Amino acid sequence: MPIPTLPGITSETITTPRLATRVLFAGAEDGAPVLFLHGNTSSATWWEEVMTSLPMGFRAIAPDQRGFGDADPSAHIDATRGLGDLADDALALLDHLGIADAHVVGNSLGGNVVWRLLLDRPERIRSATQVDPGSPYGFGGTRDADGTPTTPDFAGSGGGLANPELLRRISRNDLSSESPFSPRAALRTVIVKPPFISPREDALVQSMNATHIGPQDMPGDKVASPHWPFVAPGIWGAANALSPKYAGDVGGLARLAHKPPILWIRGDSDLLVSDTAASDPGFLGSRGLLPGWPGAEAYPPQPMVSQIRAVLADYARGGGMINEVVLTDAGHAPYIEKLDAFNAAFHAHVLRWR
Question: Rounded to two decimals, what is the model's pTM?
Answer without folding.
Answer: 0.98
